[in-house]
Amino acid sequence: MTPTSTRWTDRGLLLLRAALGLVFVMHGGQKLFVFGHAGTTAFLAQVGVPFPSVNAVLITAAELGGGLAMLSGLFTRFAGAVLAFSMTVAILSVHLPNGFFAPTGVEFPLTLLLASLTLTATGAGAYSIDAWLAGRGPGREPILRRAA
C-alpha cells in the first residue's frame, strides 16, 4: 500500500470507530440511565434471555465500555469481538423473528455486528490509542516495546 492509501485507510477506520462507538455508547447509556437495571432486566426476561439480571449488567457494560473503547481506539479488537458477540445474541434472541428491515428486524444489529467484526479483523488504525501504544501511529514512538 502507498502511504496515501494507508493514510486514507486509517482515516476510514477512525470514522468507522467513531460511528460505531457513538452508537454503542448511546445504547449502553440508555440501558444504564434511562431504562435502569430493572428495566433492562425486565426486557431481557420478556424476550427469554437466561439469567436476565446478570445479562443486563453484562450487556450494559459491553455496550457502554465497548463503545468507549471504540471511540478511543483502546483494545479495539477485543471490544469489537465483545460487541459482535452481543449483536449476535441480540439478532438470535430478539430480531431474527421480525424479518430483515428496521426498526425491529435484523438490519441494524446486523450492520453493527459486521462493523464490529471489521474492526476486530483490522484493528483500530493509526489514529488510536492502540497504535500509539504500539508505536504505529503517525510520528509516534512505541510506549510498549516487545522483548527482543
Number of helices, counting only DSSP H or I runs of 4 residues or more: 5
Shape: elongated
Judged by helices, strands and strand pairing, the structural class is mainly alpha
What is the H/E string?
Answer: HHHHH
Determine the N-to-C terminus distance. 27 Å
In this structure, how is the largest beta sheet organized? none
Backbone CA Rg: 17 Å
Strand content: under 5%
- Overall number of structural domains: 1
Q: What helical percentage do the residues reach?
A: over 70%
Uncertain runs: none
Task: Count every beta strand, where a strand is a DSSP E run of 2 or more residues.
Answer: 0
Mean pLDDT: 92
Can you tell me about this structure?
The chain has 148 residues and is mostly helical. It has one domain (3-134). 72% of the residues lie in helices and 0% in strands. The chain has five helices and no strands. It has helices at residues 3-46, 52-72, 76-95, 107-122, 129-134. The mean pLDDT is 92.
Summarize, please.
The chain is mainly alpha-helical. The protein is built from 5 helices and no strands.
Give a topology summary.
Elements: H1 3-46, H2 52-72, H3 76-95, H4 107-122, H5 129-134
